[in-house]
Amino acid sequence: MSHRGNKKRRAKRDRQSRAAPVRRNRKTIRGVTKMPKATLRAVIKNGAPVRSKRAPTFRNPKTELEAAIQRFVDLYDFAPIAYVSFDRAGRIEEANLAATELLGEPRDLLIGRPFAFYVGDLDSFMRHLLYCRTSQQQVETELQLKPRKGARILALLCSTPITSTTRNGAVLYQTAILDLSERKRAEEALRRSEEHLRAIINQSNAGIASCDLSGRFLFANQKFREMLGYTDSELVVRTIFTITHPDDVDITKSRFGKMVQRRQSVEMEKRYIRKDRSLIWVNVCDTPVLDAAGKPLSAVAVAIDVTQRKKMEAALQKSKERLEKLVQQRTTALRVANTELKNEIERRKGLEEEILAISDREQQRLGQELHDGLCQHLTAVAFMARSVALRLKNHRVIEVNDIEKIAQLVNDAATDTRNLSRALHRRDVDAVGLVNALEDLVDREIWKTPCRLKIKPSFYIEDDFASAQLYRIAREAVINANKHAQAREIVVKLERARKEIVLRVTDDGVGIPSEPKLKQGLGSHIMRYRAGVIGGRLEVESPKRGGTRVSCYLPDKALQSHKRENAGPGLFSAKITKVLAGLI
Known about the structure:
The structure is a single chain. By secondary structure, this protein is of the alpha+beta class. It has 19 helices and 15 strands. The chain has four domains: 2-183, PAS domain (Beta-Lactamase, 2-Layer Sandwich), CATH 3.30.450; 205-310, PAS domain (Beta-Lactamase), CATH 3.30.450.20; 351-425; 427-583, Heat Shock Protein 90, CATH 3.30.565.10. 54% of the residues lie in helices and 19% in strands. The protein has a five-stranded antiparallel β-sheet with strand order 2-1-5-4-3. A five-stranded antiparallel β-sheet has the order 7-6-10-9-8, with helices on both faces. Strands 11-12-13-15-14 form a five-stranded mixed β-sheet. The N and C termini lie far apart (110 Å).
């Protein structure tokens, strides 16, 4: 009951304390609002109250005053900084919402309780309270707070003495409580960052130094001091110009001035004079350090010792001069060798033509032998097997289906042999006959799967070799599709798209096998080689709708370069490549 009574009395006292200034200000407003404007201005200027019979100028002073008080209360309560007011004994008289959140107590429990109850460092707070009593200025103290909930907080108390209008003129200390935890963590992080940066600078393999705008050294890391042989105290009394070789001073001053004026980094190679008067070559990059307004404050120089590189460059120059002399001495020998090389090229050209002729004859011979020999023999065997099947059928001794299967297998062997003979028999395909050759390819009756050709009748390629390779790629793709795809239809399409020629062979079969060995066993390596010979590229993929699509892309520039190769003398390596492509 006593606690509840104390709360009621405290609430009544708070209401009375807040209403007292309202009543006093209301009386003042009644007197002021009866003045005319001129008199009111005089009162404001001179401070002498004057009675007037004029009507009041405020529409509703009570409402406006209460609104002003409410605005002040709202600003105080909802301020982001914690505020408390305590008396000379340290007892809390007022607290805003931020203070209740910081200290972890509701306002009704904070009011009337000693602030020391929430202080972890009691001695610091007692000294702070003593300074508040003896000083009329703001008092600041760092100490630890211990909220009701959570860990301790490092805070800054900023107390200002005020005269309370609700406590009969008693002196209160309005105190702002600033949470220093984040700031302390930031300061610690900054300190660690500075130590880390200092360690990096001192352990860097490059010499790093800072100087003011006159060139006088302010700081130098260990590497920079080792490069010059100076100590810290010896270096700070010097400038970047006094340690520079006299021949490089003028250009150094010019570059340094441009850096300050343009506020941009400058880089140069120059010579430094060491303490022992020896010279070192350095690559120096000077960078200005700017303030927030972009004004240069100082400069940072990063120097790398390039003395060894300079020595190597000098040695390389001497070697170059010696090499030039040797080249001049060998000029005559090279001319003789050049003549011999030309003769060798002519001999190789004749050899290439002979290789091409032999290759064509061998392919024709092999194809003819397969066609006239093995193919006819297997066909005869098939007919004989059919005859035996008919005889056995009359005697009813052996199953007819078995013999017919033998005949069918032999026929299949004959068909495969015929396909092989046609594949090995080289057909001369030139630029004019490419369309006819493709039409003949898809119209063959030997294919198990129907083939269809999509091509414009006016399609033309100005390169016989490229036409032959495109035909061979199409033939290989059609053969693979018939052997492995199990497709219902094969489509061969040749078109010109943008700046390239595109050959596509598409089927609606089972697609590309998942095993890597099977992927490589479909003759794709042969087709890729042919595409590479003519400067194109080959892609083998399975579309989303199924099947397999073999695409060969031949850029126009590849055709042009290939024509130049055919016309140019002595390029036997390219022709040998063509021979190899024809043999595959």
